[in-house]
Amino acid sequence: MKLDTTLLAETPEGIDILLRPAGVVARALAYALDWGIRLAVFIAAMTAIASTQGASGGLGAGLSFILYFGLEWIYPIVFELLPGAATPGKRVLGLQVMMDTGLPITPSAAVTRNLLRAADFLPFLFAFGVLAMLLRHDFKRIGDIVAGTLVVHADHVRLAGALPEAPPLAPRVPLTRAQQVAILHLAGRARRLTPERVDELAALAEGVLPPPDAALAGAPPAASRPGPRLLSVAQWLAGQR
Amino acid sequence: MAMTPRQFEARYDPLWDELERGLAALDAGGKPRRLKAGEFPTEVAPVPRPARVAQLYRQCCEHLALARERAYPVHLVARLEALTARAHQRIYRRHDFGLGALRDLVLHGAPEAVRALRWHLLVSALVFLLPALVVGVATWVDPQFALTVVDAHQIREFDKMYGPEAGEHLGRTSSDDWQMFGFYIAHNVGIAFQCFAAGITFGVGSLVMLAYNGLLLGAVSGLLVTRGDAERFFSFVVTHSAFELTAIVLAGAAGLKLGHAMLAPGRLTRTGALMQAARDTSPVVFAFFVMLLVAAALEAFWSSAGWIAPAVKYGVGGACWLLVMAYLGLQGRGAAAESAR
User: Fold this and answer.
1) B74 vs A65, A185, A240: nearest CB
2) Is B222 helix (H, G, I), strand (E, B) or coil?
3) B213, B259 contact by CB (below 8 A)
4) Which residues of chain B does A184 touch, with a Cβ-Cβ cutoff of 8 Å?
5) Do A58 and B65 count as a contact with CB atoms less than 8 A apart?
6) Distance, CA of B272 to CA of B279 (rounded, Å)
7) What is the pLDDT of residue A43?
């Protein structure tokens, strides 16, 4: 079963681009932030209008209606078409809107997804939108489904770093591709784990690791633990001989 | 012997760095990076030209495919993934945001998209206008009938706006023109957007909204005609209704198109049909949005001006109706025939 929520989008160059759709919580927080920003802008503008116009200005009231309309419908469209492709709330949370093909968002898609927020809002408080997001593995609300857009985490997480330095050691037996991948993955994440945890996980691969006495002469005794031996195998797989 | 991950990284790392520099320069708008204190221009790595960036991007795609296929260490694959994703976003960015696309949309895109919806338009117009007609006539025959649609409070409001005591300015004083302009934009465009979006409920939402607004229209017109305010009312609405009523029918038709795609997706999946319908109707959305803005401006500043003789308003209003119908019905037909050939 696939646990993570990543999506692959194929490009014309024949490679797959990894997209990480944003879930309900991140998007709800972004919406709440945007709502706060819009409210603050509206209140600030109202205060400014009231102080310059007095209470009776029809012009001020007219401007307030237009501002309300702009903040409600135009604000998200404009910000999603700017470079960065996200409303300020989404920017704070590191989200970005794009087409589900991995391409930048098109104007008509931005309009469609934001107008259909009205459909997502039905029957109350975005119930349809949240339901759609919870039911789908790519967390699209109705507007996203229709417009073919996706809200993704823009930043790439780096769980794995460079392989830690270790003297290379050949594995006990030739490894299959899957085994090589598993060992390289674990070695790449070794810096984020305690040495004890690395030992614990590396012990699962004891069958293919070189025997403890294979550690190089003169190495400290700790080098014979499963973790350091696995790192050595990883270095060997990476090509250090 | 196959290349090991270390050799691979050592050999191509300069290319990846170059691509990163190129992308950073493009993000910065093509301006060269500011030198840090104590740095000489010769120490700064050269920034690749945009054409070179495209070439580097294709090479990186190749490297990513190789790295994945050969199960290279995760940090290598992850770095290439991030790099290609970033370059992909940058390279496939649309560059035609400008006036050219807008001109095409106005000259033939929007009216063509409207004409492609002719059956939805017919249904939308009927669902909107039939209730208006029926309620209008019923109210004309028996004014009490209006109370079944609108409540007494709303009727008093309309009376205040169009009734005999409404004086020189129809509906309000001139200082309120701006206020009403803003109100019409926020209110009418919002209703039209909702009318469109509600179509996703298999069209039911759009039908309900169309019929309800038709009922209101019929009740108000019928009531005002029976009270003898017919000229006042019709001279008020004739101009902006050309844009406003048409726009509501367009919004309803676009919503019905979405509902139609949900009900009868044809040979596509439901989602696919819905996406297709949304693409087909997006020029219509643009059209009714602009028309409602025009209607709001006319309604606020022209329709309400009491000093303009009703005859003038009827003339201008008629011309507006002709203009709107001619634009939606005829504009861009030549271009369509041209591209079909």
Assistant:
1) A185
2) helix
3) no
4) 71-74
5) no
6) 11
7) 92
Question: Quick one: what percent of chain B has pLDDT higher than 90?
Answer: 30
Q: Best of A112, A144, A183 to disrupt the B interface by mutation (most B CBs within 10 Å)? A: A112
- HSE-CB of A167 using CA atoms within 13 angstroms: 10
DSSP B82-129: HHHHHHHHHHT-----SHHHHHHIIIIIHHHHHHHTHHHHHHHHHHHH
Q: B270 and chain A: CB distance < 8 Å anywhere?
A: no
Long-range contacts of A25-31 (CB under 8 A, 24+ apart): A26/A93, A26/A95, A26/A153, A27/A90, A27/A95, A27/A133, A27/A139, A27/A151, A28/A130, A29/A89, A29/A93, A30/A87, A30/A89, A30/A90, A30/A92, A30/A93, A30/A95, A31/A89
CB contact under 8 A, A62 and B6: no
Which residues from A are below 8 Å from B177, CB to CB? Answer: 58, 62
Q: What is the reported pTM?
A: 0.77
Tell me: pLDDT of B323 over 90.
yes
Nearest-angstrom CA–CA distance, B5 and A12: 26
Q: What is the DSSP letter of A126?
A: T
* pLDDT, tens only, B162-216: 655 555 455 555 556 777 777 777 788 888 888 888 888 899 999 999 999 899 8
Q: Give contacts of B88 with chain A, Cβ < 8 Å.
A: 11, 17, 102-103
Q: Does B176 touch chain A (CB under 8 A)?
A: yes
**Confidence at residue B227, expressed as pLDDT on a 0 to 100 scale:** 78
B 183-212 residues inside an 8 A Cβ radius of A: 183, 185-187, 189-190, 193-194, 196-198, 200-201, 205
A146 at interface of B, judged by CB pairs closer than 8 A = yes
Residue B1 confidence (pLDDT) above 60: no
CA distance linking residue B197 with residue A145, whole number of Å: 13
Q: Do B193 and A63 touch (CB under 8 A)?
A: no
Q: Which candidate from A68, A146, A158 shows the least CB-CB separation from B278?
A: A146
Quick one: pLDDT at residue B174? 53
Alpha-carbon distances of A80 from A77, A100, A106, B284, B311, rounded to whole Å = 5, 15, 9, 21, 47
The per-residue pLDDT for B172 is 52
Which of A55-59, A126-130, B221-225 has the highest average model confidence (pLDDT)?
A126-130
Inform me whether the C-beta atom of residue B95 falls under 8 Å from chain A C-beta atoms: no
C-alpha span between B204 and B224 (Å, rounded): 30
Q: Does this complex have an ipTM over 0.95? A: no
Question: What residue of B is the nearest CA neighbor of A236?
Answer: B4
Confidence of residue A92 (pLDDT cuts 50, 70, 90): very high
Tell me the two tokens of residue B194: 């909702």
Q: Which of B19, B177, B178, B256 has the most A C-beta neighbours within 10 Å, making it the best mutation to test the interface with A?
A: B178
CB contact under 8 A, B89 and A103: yes
CA distance B65 to A232: 26
Contacts of B60 (CB under 8 A, 6+ apart): B15, B16, B19, B80, B83, B84, B87
Ranges of each domain in chain A: 7-153, 177-237
Task: Inspect the interface and report whether the beta carbons of B189 and A239 lie closer than 8 Å.
Answer: no
pLDDT of B99:
67
